[in-house]
Amino acid sequence: MGQMNSQDMLRRLLRAKTEAEPQGQMTGGRVVRLAIARAADEALGLSLTVLGVNQEVEDLDSMVKRLSGDWMLIGLVREDELVGVAGLDLQARAAAVEMQTLGQLRSAPAAERAITPSDVALCSPLVTGFLTELEEASRDTELAGWTDGATVGARISDARAVGLALSENRYRYIGVTLDLGTGERQGTILLALPASPATEKEPEAQTGRADLFKANFQATVMEAPAILHAVLHHMTLPLSKVAKFQVGDTVPLPGVTVGSVRMEAPGGQVLGRARLGQVTGMRAVRLEVAAPATLAEVQLPDRRSAAPAAAERPEPQVIPDQRMDVE
């Protein structure tokens, strides 16, 4: 480690002032400071100082604009659904990697390099600890419930992918600027989750949402176009006869009446019956209830009378035994 300069001394004094603050009403900013300090100590063994906390509640587009730069972005999921994002800048993720691979921080700031899967794996414990500490420490503050149930997911490539993956919502953004405790190294970590706290879904609320979805789905389906054919008669004719049809010819429809109209679906399924008529001079059909099927009595012959009497049955003929001699 290099020699302590004036800036290092100021940061140490700021840390001492923060740690010496009297215990009083916990605010959101103070909860964030304590949570990240504890998470870094427990997950990385790193003692750091929080230089500043920036909190904003904004829409998705405004939040995404904050993610441009050298951030390593990690998705935050709740019940297998992507709901937010965590981010570490170059120096913050380098500190997490160095503490877990070297056991200490380098004095010089980390050089820019491509993000690897190992970086994500080594930084995930810090993010997980930050979420856990916030959940436990924010019970009586404006952050109560904000991180409940949120866990670390997969890496997200860039800010544009975040904007496409997250739903339109109001998001609480928290950015924490960190003094990493070595030289002039500073880093930043951020969290962004829906501003409304995560609450357990009550059965009544679930039922209400299910009913609303059912009603909306039914309304959408009922707006779908339906095609009906009013068919008066079907007939089959030879092509030679059809080819001789002329304008003005009369085509007989045997057995057809104004009540013979069938309402058919495009596949030919009969949906109902109708009667042909007019409405204000326009051809129309009136839907009718199909006549119920009726059962008629059928006289069956009496089996006893149909069968011949035993006395009248002819005697079976006995064929005499005929033998043939074969020499």
Automatic annotation (TrEMBL):
Q: Where is this region: Disordered?
A: 301-327
| Domain Flagellar motor switch protein FliN-like C-terminal as annotated: residue spans | 221-288
Q: Does the keyword Metal-binding apply?
A: no
One short Pfam name that applies is: FliMN_C
Keywords on this record?
A: Cell projection, Cilium, Flagellum
InterPro entries per the record?
A: FliN-like_C, SpoA-like_sf
Name the chain's protein.
Flagellar motor switch protein FliM
Species this protein is from: Flavimaricola marinus
